[in-house]
Amino acid sequence: MAAVRKAIVVGAGIGGLTTAVGLRRAGVETVVLERRSAPGRLLTGGGFMLWHNALLALRELKLDERVAEAGVEIVYHEFRSDRGRRLARWDIAPEAERYGAPALGLRRSALNTVLMDAAGDDVLLGRRCVGFEQDPDGVTARLEDGSELRADVLIGADGVRSTVRDVLRKGHDLPLRYAGYTAWQAITRLPGEDVVPTGTFFNLWGRGGLRFLYMRLNPEEVYWDAITADSVGASFDMLAKDRREVMAEAYRDWPDPVPRILASTEEDAILPIDIFDRPPDRGGGWGKGRVVLLGDAAHPMTLNLSQGAGQAIEDGVALVRLLSEHERVPAAIAAFEDLRRERVDGMTGTAWSIGAMGRWRSRALCAGRDLFMRAFFDGKGRRESYAQMMDVRF
């Protein structure tokens, strides 16, 4: 990697840390600038799915086994209606054997911990990047405290509201696209295999703009995600009721164990997150010169494919490889976007379309959606999903 002797990564999220680990193992002096100053604030978040493609990318960094130990293998992905009817059930175990990598359910903080440990002293906390200047020989990052750092490449992995992106595009950018729904996420203590069995990711589709996802993370804890369309959320009385009461009321007629999961959850554990993405934008690239974006800074997507983290990981692995293969940094950055753009644009569009179906309120539309899922999801839907997921490009 003669073209890159020193790198600056902005953001210690999943994509930034993956990239930093890869650069470090390639012998590149790397600094990760993270605006948050308390280590505990980096190890937050609920649970999520990490699919086979992400584990294959982590294998390139020899981290897949450590991440697998931190999670639980998911062997079934089950789709149900809000009346408890099974719509489809994907047997994931054969695919895990086929690709040589499992699908996992795990805490986001568990993945962050593995990546932080691997990145080591490269991560500088409480160091906020506020701008940069570049020239033919390198790039200089400006920090909030007035200091500067110089490197051969600057990688913006600072999330959906990226400072690096804003500076790179000089404030002229397409706005974030609000998806029209909120994800209410939590982890609750709820032991009992009879309540939530280990190894199945449950994906419930309801009428009236409601969805509910849940899975067991370990013998004691369950992760859940209630997705509520704005047409429902507008009626929530958040002044008179707390978040748990609002959720319990919205899902009171749903089948077990949904009401039991909600009843077991502490109020402070529930985190509502409004969901945004960016529509694919061919008019604006991910990089210029010696500066490049990845992960949510480049291509935020909605949660419906459980691929946000996976694509950030793939980004990091791909970028490190291309920087090692090209003699010039701008050429590596151009090759990175050429390699990754079509894949993530397709996933962004698919995730958006799936989320739009969850906003439907009409009984007729929801009944048609359920019928479609029963007819096609175990066959064509599953095949198309895997074809898109496993078209890995790193």
From TrEMBL:
GO terms for molecular function: monooxygenase activity. InterPro entries: FAD-bd (IPR002938), FAD-dep_Monooxygenase_BioMet (IPR050493), FAD/NAD-bd_sf (IPR036188). Keywords: Monooxygenase, Oxidoreductase. PANTHER family: MONOOXYGENASE, PUTATIVE (AFU_ORTHOLOGUE AFUA_6G14510)-RELATED. Gene3D superfamilies: FAD/NAD(P)-binding domain (3.50.50.60). It comes from the Bacteria. The keyword Transcription regulation does not apply. This is FAD-dependent monooxygenase. Residues 7-168, 286-344 form the FAD-binding domain. It holds the Pfam family FAD_binding_3.
